[in-house]
Amino acid sequence: MFTGIVEELGEIVASEPLADSARLTIRGKLVTSDAKHGDSIAVNGVCLTVVDVVDGDSFTTDVMGETLNRSGIGKLGVGSRVNLERAAAVNSRLGGHIVQGHVDGTGTILARTAAENWEVVRISLPDNLARYVVEKGSITVDGISLTVSGIGVDDTREPGHRDWFEVSLIPTTRELTTLGTAPVGATVNLEVDIIAKYVERLQQRG
């Protein structure tokens, strides 16, 4: 489990394509400092397992085909910056919200609107996830726990991604995560609030 509070900006330093997966080497001195084989590290919101620690500042991880297809990880290459977070410790504060590291889908950055001290980012939302997203609720974008500041529908867009939501980035988020510099058109990983999905399932079985 994670909290969506990014600990470090890392970098993909090697990518080895395999038959139906890929092996990535990711540099991140902080998250690697106490990492060992089998540990979980969230990479842009995707829970990945450490295979090996390399040179004390990098780790390797295997990414299966399903993850490559269902997330934006497959679009990243050597040199790409990534958000990194170690699994939450049971004695730590829950600074963000409950994040599993299981990506529900991807969205596209539609617009960025800068203000004096923050920036509003609008992101497309797959129609099948829209029911889980509410204004002032939580959502994970590329592993970042964010508060939804606005939601809406654009009927001019293609079916499947007509819904959108907005998040407001404070300077710290802009400076310390990949979302601060991600351009319009970039693909981002989305994980909706797990509590909303459980509530829906319970209602269906009621």
Task: Give an overview in words.
The protein is mainly beta and 206 residues long. Helix content is 14%, strand content 42%. It is built from 4 helices and 12 strands. It has helices at 29-32, 65-70, 171-176, 194-205, and strands at residues 8-17, 21-27, 40-43, 46-54, 58-64, 81-86, 105-114, 119-125, 138-141, 144-153, 163-169, 187-192. The strands form 2 sheets. A 6-stranded antiparallel β-barrel has the order 1-2-5-4-3-6. Strand 9 and strand 10 (144-153) form a beta hairpin. 33% of the residues are buried. The mean pLDDT is 92.
Helical proportion, percent range: 10-25%
Number of strands: 12
Mean pLDDT: 92
Class from secondary-structure proportions: mainly beta
> Helix tally?
4
How widely separated are the two ends? 28 Å
Report the radius of gyration as a whole number of Å.
17 Å
State the major sheet. Answer: 6 strands, antiparallel, barrel
The helix-strand sequence is: EEHEEEHEEEEEEHEH
Low-confidence runs:
none
Give the strand line-up of the largest sheet: 1-2-5-4-3-6
Strand content: 35-45%
The geometry reads as globular
